């Protein structure tokens, strides 16, 4: 093994957090604290997950919030898993024709047009109704307090608010600047208060999650959105429901890996694992890495993503074949066509994982899709709306072509791994198109190299979105550049701990012992009970 890689991977920057009475790992310490407090008071995994999720919506508002979506997995101690789809549909009134009549030839990246029904509030409420033991009012308390008292900005938040992306957004969308402050000049520890979001959450806590979709609250925030050109109407809101489905799964290393079915891109993770299981790739011949050959990795990733782009859409638009992950079907996929994708922004998404003392588990992902989503703000209610329809196409493509009233393609990709003892791994990451890639790399490092989960998370990563450019963290072996260039790839070196590679949160369960891993690339934090 390369001595540089060996030293880097055998010594983690953070310790593995261990416990046996429950654990929460989330994308911000305040969210982990909220979830852990619920566990400490006797709540279960779903109670803790929703409390942490609501706190994430306040703690990192540029990544997620009341106007976003959620997709999650819920696992029982016996290994049964339920997929929770809290993504919303495009407005029923939206069509390719109506948008072309507006002079649009492609879906705008931001603004009112790519806004779909925000599903996260319903996902909180309906998941809690089915699997929780606490009231919505109780689990929302920490998020409400955080919004009122203000979240202290950490390094990641300061970098964002002082960066060029927020400066550009604040100029294009003055309501964002008015709500979250001017670009630049932010300091670590400065408090960001969100009183309007706190009041909205108080109304939801008192009247229930349905109040966000019908009644006075719904009419009020929707009126603000429609005044800015958003196409959602009250019927779209009232019709929204969270879906509870069977997950997709595959056997890998004598375990079963579960993901959310389409419209989630979780299928890409399963395809990458299935390809590796069918024909394990050899490590690089130069011993630059003990596990991953970057050229072989990108070849298999391309096949998996071709499958994703064939099937990952609203399930009413496709029929998944029974041999979906067979070698025969994977070998027939065409790599010639690639759908339009966003440029690499890292994915402005937040995640959390929970396993409680009884073995119930949650992997939860929620998002505005990109930084502050659409940029559209409902200022009197503290709601920023996402831009999830951005990747839909204004044509008749059977998978990605825009259709009103249908859920668009979704990058959110939670995962659970089950074995003889029930859920043995809960894992999730932000990172848009990089989500299945980061999960794949971490899972292989942990289970095949048998390094601890924190070490697997900290190992340097690579990522490919579209085209021929591949991103490598600067800690990746230098010999990879020549190998990739020879194979026709263009190498882009990024930071040693690049947020473009996601922010993996994971809990590994071995018997009664829980081991948590939190990614230093973002503000991830693990707390054991």
Would you write up a description of this structure?
The chain has helices at residues 3-10, 29-40, 45-59, 96-101, 120-131, 136-149, 155-161, 164-172, 174-180, 195-207, 216-227, 234-239, 266-278, 294-311, 327-331, 435-448, 453-458, 479-486, and strands spanning 17-19, 22-26, 69-75, 81-86, 151-152, 191-192, 243-245, 248-252, 255-259, 348-356, 361-369, 377-378, 383-384, 415-419, 422-428, 462-464, 469-473, 490-494, 505-510, 513-518, 525-528. The two termini are 37 Å apart. It contains 18 helices and 21 strands. The radius of gyration is 22 Å and the shape is globular. Residues 1-9 and 336-345 have low confidence and may be disordered. The strands form five sheets. A seven-stranded antiparallel sheet has the order 1-20-19-15-14-9-8. It has a domain at 153-192. Strand 3 (69-75) and strand 4 form a beta hairpin. The chain is of the alpha+beta class. 55% of the residues are buried.
Topology readout:
Blueprint: H1 3-10, E1 17-19, E2 22-26, H2 29-40, H3 45-59, E3 69-75, E4 81-86, H4 96-101, H5 120-131, H6 136-149, E5 151-152, H7 155-161, H8 164-172, H9 174-180, E6 191-192, H10 195-207, H11 216-227, H12 234-239, E7 243-245, E8 248-252, E9 255-259, H13 266-278, H14 294-311, H15 327-331, E10 348-356, E11 361-369, E12 377-378, E13 383-384, E14 415-419, E15 422-428, H16 435-448, H17 453-458, E16 462-464, E17 469-473, H18 479-486, E18 490-494, E19 505-510, E20 513-518, E21 525-528
Parallel strand pairs: 17-18
Antiparallel strand pairs: 1-20, 2-10, 2-21, 3-4, 3-11, 4-7, 5-6, 8-9, 9-14, 10-11, 12-13, 14-15, 15-19, 16-17, 19-20
Helix pairs in contact: 2-3, 2-6, 3-5, 3-6, 6-10, 8-9, 13-14, 13-16
């Amino acid at each position: 093994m390369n001595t540089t890689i060996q030293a880097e991977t055998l010594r983690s920057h953070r310790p593995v957090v261990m416990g046996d009475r429950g654990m929460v790992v989330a994308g911000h310490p305040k969210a982990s604290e909220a979830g852990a407090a619920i566990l400490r008071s006797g709540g279960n995994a779903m109670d803790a997950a929703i409390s942490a999720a609501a706190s994430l919506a306040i703690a990192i508002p540029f990544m997620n919030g009341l106007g976003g979506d959620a997709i999650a997995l819920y696992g029982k101690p016996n290994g049964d898993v339920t997929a929770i789809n809290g993504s919303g549909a495009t407005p029923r009134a939206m069509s390719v024709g109506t948008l072309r009549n507006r002079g649009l030839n492609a879906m705008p990246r931001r603004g009112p047009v790519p806004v779909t029904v925000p599903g996260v509030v319903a996902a909180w409420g309906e998941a809690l109704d089915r699997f929780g033991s606490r009231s919505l009012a109780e689990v929302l308390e920490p998020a409400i307090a955080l919004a009122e008292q203000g979240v202290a900005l950490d390094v990641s938040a300061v970098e964002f608010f002082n960066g060029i992306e927020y400066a550009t957004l604040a100029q294009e969308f003055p309501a964002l600047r008015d709500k979250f402050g001017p670009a630049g000049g932010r300091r670590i520890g400065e408090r960001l208060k969100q009183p309007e979001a706190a009041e909205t959450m108080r109304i939801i806590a008192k009247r229930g999650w349905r109040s966000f979709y019908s009644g006075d609250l719904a009419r009020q925030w929707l009126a603000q959105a429609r005044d800015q050109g958003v196409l959602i109407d009250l019927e779209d809101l009232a019709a929204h429901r969270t879906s509870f489905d069977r997950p997709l799964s595959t056997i890998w290393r004598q375990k079963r890996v579960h993901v959310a079915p389409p419209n989630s891109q979780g299928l890409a993770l399963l395809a990458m694992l299935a390809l590796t299981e069918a024909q394990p790739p050899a490590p690089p011949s130069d011993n630059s890495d003990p596990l991953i050959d970057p050229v072989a990795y990108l070849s298999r990733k391309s096949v998996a993503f071709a499958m994703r782009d064939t099937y990952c859409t609203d399930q009413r638009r496709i029929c998944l074949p029974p041999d979906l992950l067979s070698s025969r079907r994977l070998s027939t996929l065409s790599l010639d066509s690639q759908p339009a994708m966003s440029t690499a922004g890292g994915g402005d998404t937040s995640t959390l994982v929970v396993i409680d003392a009884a073995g119930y588990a949650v992997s939860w992902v929620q998002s505005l899709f990109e930084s502050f989503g659409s940029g559209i703000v409902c200022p009197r209610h503290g709601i920023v709306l996402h831009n999830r329809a951005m990747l839909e196409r204004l044509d008749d493509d059977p998978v990605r072509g825009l259709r009103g009233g249908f859920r668009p393609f979704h990058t959110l990709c939670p995962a659970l791994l089950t074995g003889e003892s029930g859920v043995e791994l809960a894992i999730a990451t932000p990172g848009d198109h990089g989500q299945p890639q980061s999960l794949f790399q971490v899972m292989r490092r942990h289970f095949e190299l048998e390094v601890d989960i924190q070490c697997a998370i900290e190992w340097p990563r690579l990522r490919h979105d579209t085209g021929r450019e591949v991103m490598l963290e600067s800690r990746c072996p230098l010999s990879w550049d020549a190998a990739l260039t020879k194979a026709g790839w263009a190498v882009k070196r990024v930071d040693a701990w690049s947020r473009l590679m996601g922010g993996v949160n994971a809990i590994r369960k071995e018997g009664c012992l829980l081991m948590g891993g939190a990614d230093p690339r973002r503000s991830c934090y693990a707390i054991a009970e």
